[in-house]
């Protein structure tokens, strides 16, 4: 028998062993029926006794109470009226300070006036019994109460507001770090490259070219594609034959501050190659020199949230996160946007309870996928205006105008469907041929490219500008305009929770390519491909299985994707920097595994096998092993 059961037995025995004599009153406990029933219920709820035992105790108490009431009535009849009246002295003689509890089993109040034929019995609970009860209840409640207090302290930040200035408590830091082992394997049958100085059977150079390096020398006496390839092949031609292992590091430190209701400001610092907008990686091997460290994000964000916790719209300004539902065939995961944007939402199913327990995962937790800054069960419209390059003559600035419409729907349980249609118009990014003797369109040369887009000569020997004498060209730019339509659909099935199955389909089409215009304006035509036929389509099919966000030990996720990106489907400057080592004109497979090593520490392994779609044979297999940590 447990301690509580023993205690209850003592209490019941005392309460039911009532007698009419003063001696009996000193040894018994008389308890009100409702109090006894409540006590039994409490012990049942605490698991001290089971329900059948509780019912048995109450039933036994009722039977004994009835028997003793009958015996008391008989005693009263024998003793007479005077004797019965003297029974009131039992209550009056209750010792003070003994924790006495006086009540009547028949249900009358303890202080009720005595009636003829009724005998009231008074007892007290001994101190050792009360102590046992207190200790038992305290032991059972301590763990639950302690856990509740600790959770409240964490949620409400006990002690922090008083210990720190208000502005410190309003700032929320974030940190992440990645160490990458990047192993690159080139096809043995790759054509061109540094080994044979990029010369085909007809004696022509065909790269693959490093257009940024060639353009840097464009307006110098050493300018020109032919001269640069002959004098500086290690810079002018991209490696496509020598396998390479690189160790790389990415470090990012961010701060976000709550300014007012709905308004916050943020800044993020990151290791960065200052000339590369799609990578924060720092390659190790700088002979002890310091790393580059840059402001990767700096922004203001306002979210309008009503009293029902519905987010109606978000406004962004500065150097901001990618606000669009998208994948890495259009935008690399490391790309930040400069400009202003707004996302406006029309919620539906507001009266439903579906969203009550739903917690949306990090929209960029799956590498290469951006589910957007949206909320489930809403239609949305996102608009943005982003300056790409500031030119001295303002009418020639390079811009991106972007718009997206879509729906974010929690279909059933935690299964979620995202669909979006987007239009991205890049203004003034295409090349323009310089007039004779002029450099007026030199600004149309891109500040950054990777590889893959069709290129044309802005300046060549026929422009007679006094500097360039190269028959192919000295300064190069993008042949096509870029007006990209993009359709994206994602279905996140949660029926195997905690593992999810995410199916993603992405399609892009460049509507800005004009074959006739390119042929009419540029005498030498496209210089890095043998034809100028439109190659303007891209698509990707991908499946992810596992936890949406790998955050703890043994969390896991795997993914498999097939991607096909023609040379002028998207702007090669902004697409994925890992697939085919960056750029367009590539097709192939991507397989990945993510596994949690500890809290906020995980391993990301990706294997990419790619081939060029057009031009000389160019195959690359890439293995990336990333060790990630964050808080």
Structure report:
This protein is an alpha+beta fold and 631 residues long. It is 21% helix and 35% strand. The protein contains 13 helices and 23 strands. It has helices at residues 3-16, 22-25, 33-45, 51-79, 81-86, 89-92, 127-156, 160-163, 166-169, 211-216, 225-231, 233-236, 515-521, and strands at residues 100-102, 122-124, 171-186, 244-260, 263-271, 282-283, 293-305, 311-320, 326-327, 337-347, 369-370, 378-389, 398-412, 415-427, 455-459, 475-478, 482-496, 499-510, 537-546, 556-565, 586-598, 601-612, 619-630. Strands 3-4-5-7-8-10-12-13-14-17-18-19-20-21-22-23 form a 16-stranded antiparallel β-barrel. Strands 1-2 form a two-stranded antiparallel sheet. A hairpin with a 6-residue loop joins β22 and β23 (619-630). Mean pLDDT is 83; it is low at 16-27 and 82-108.
Number of helices: 13
Mean pLDDT: 83
Radius of gyration, taken over Cα atoms and rounded to an integer in Å: 40 Å
Spatial order of strands in the largest sheet: 3-4-5-7-8-10-12-13-14-17-18-19-20-21-22-23
Largest sheet: 16 strands, antiparallel, barrel
Seen as an oligomer or otherwise, the chain set is: single chain
Morphology: elongated
Proportion of residues in helical segments: 10-25%
Structural class: alpha+beta
Spans of 5+ residues with little confidence (pLDDT < 50)?
16-27, 82-108
How many strands in all?
23
**Beta-strand content bin:** 35-45%
N-end to C-end Cα span = 51 Å
In short:
By secondary structure, the chain is an alpha+beta fold. The chain is 21% helix and 35% strand. The protein is built from 13 helices and 23 strands.
């Amino acid at each position: 028998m447990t301690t509580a059961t023993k205690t209850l037995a003592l209490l019941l025995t005392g309460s039911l062993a009532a007698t009419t004599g003063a001696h009996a009153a000193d040894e018994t406990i008389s308890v009100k029926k409702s109090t006894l029933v409540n006590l039994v219920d409490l012990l049942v709820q605490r698991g001290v006794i089971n329900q059948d035992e509780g019912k048995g105790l109450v039933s036994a108490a009722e039977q004994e109470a009835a028997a003793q009431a009958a015996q008391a009535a008989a005693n009263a009849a024998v003793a007479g009226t005077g004797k019965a009246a003297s029974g009131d002295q039992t209550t009056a003689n209750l010792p003070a300070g003994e924790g006495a509890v006086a009540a009547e089993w028949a249900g009358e109040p303890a202080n009720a006036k005595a009636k003829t034929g009724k005998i009231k019995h008074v007892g007290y609970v001994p101190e050792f019994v009360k102590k046992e009860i207190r200790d038992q209840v305290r032991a059972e409640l301590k763990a639950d109460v302690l856990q509740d207090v600790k959770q409240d302290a964490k949620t409400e930040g006990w002690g922090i507001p008083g210990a720190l200035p208000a502005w410190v408590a309003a700032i929320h830091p974030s940190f992440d770090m990645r160490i990458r082992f990047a192993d690159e394997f080139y096809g043995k049958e790759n054509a061109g490259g540094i080994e044979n100085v990029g010369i085909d059977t007809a004696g022509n150079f065909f790269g693959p070219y490093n257009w940024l390096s060639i353009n840097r020398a464009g307006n110098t006496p050493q300018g020109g594609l032919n001269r640069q390839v002959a004098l500086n092949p290690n810079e002018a031609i991209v490696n496509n034959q020598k396998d390479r292992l690189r160790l790389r590091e990415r470090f990012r430190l961010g701060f976000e501050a709550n300014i007012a209701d709905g308004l916050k400001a943020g800044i993020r610092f990151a290791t960065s190659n200052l000339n590369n907008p799609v990578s924060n990686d720092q390659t190790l091997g700088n002979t002890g020199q310091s790393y580059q460290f840059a402001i990767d994000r700096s922004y203001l964000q306002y979210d309008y949230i009503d009293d029902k916790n519905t987010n109606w719209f978000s406004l962004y300004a500065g150097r901001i996160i990618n606000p669009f539902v998208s994948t890495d065939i259009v935008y690399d995961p490391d790309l930040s946007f400069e400009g202003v944007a707004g996302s406006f939402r029309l919620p539906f199913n507001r009266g439903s309870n579906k969203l009550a327990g739903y917690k949306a995962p990090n929209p960029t937790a799956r590498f290469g996928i951006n589910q957007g800054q949206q909320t489930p069960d809403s239609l949305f419209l996102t608009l943005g205006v982003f300056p790409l390059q500031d030119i001295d003559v303002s009418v020639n600035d390079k811009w991106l105008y972007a718009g997206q419409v879509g729906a974010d729907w929690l279909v059933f349980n935690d299964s979620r469907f995202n669909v979006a249609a987007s239009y991205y118009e890049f203004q003034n990014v295409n090349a323009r041929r310089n007039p004779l003797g002029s450099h007026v369109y030199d600004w149309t040369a891109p500040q950054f490219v990777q590889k893959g887009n069709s290129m044309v000569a802005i300046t060549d020997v026929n422009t007679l500008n006094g500097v360039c004498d190269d028959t192919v060209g000295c300064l190069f730019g993008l042949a096509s305009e870029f007006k990209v339509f993009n359709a994206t659909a994602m279905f996140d099935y949660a029926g195997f929770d905690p593992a999810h199955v995410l199916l993603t389909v992405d399609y892009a089409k460049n509507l800005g390519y004009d074959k006739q215009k390119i042929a009419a304006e540029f005498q030498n035509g496209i210089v890095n491909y043998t034809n100028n036929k439109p190659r303007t389509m891209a698509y990707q099919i991908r499946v992810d299985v596992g936890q949406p966000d790998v955050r703890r030990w043994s969390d896991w996720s795997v993914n498999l994707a097939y991607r096909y990106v023609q040379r002028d489907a998207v702007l090669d400057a902004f697409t994925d920097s890992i697939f085919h080592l960056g750029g367009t004109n590539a097709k192939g497979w991507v397989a990945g595994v993510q596994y949690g090593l500890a809290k906020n520490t995980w391993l990301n392994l990706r294997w990419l096998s790619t081939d060029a779609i057009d031009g000389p044979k160019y195959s690359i297999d890439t293995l990336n092993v990333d060790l990630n940590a964050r808080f």
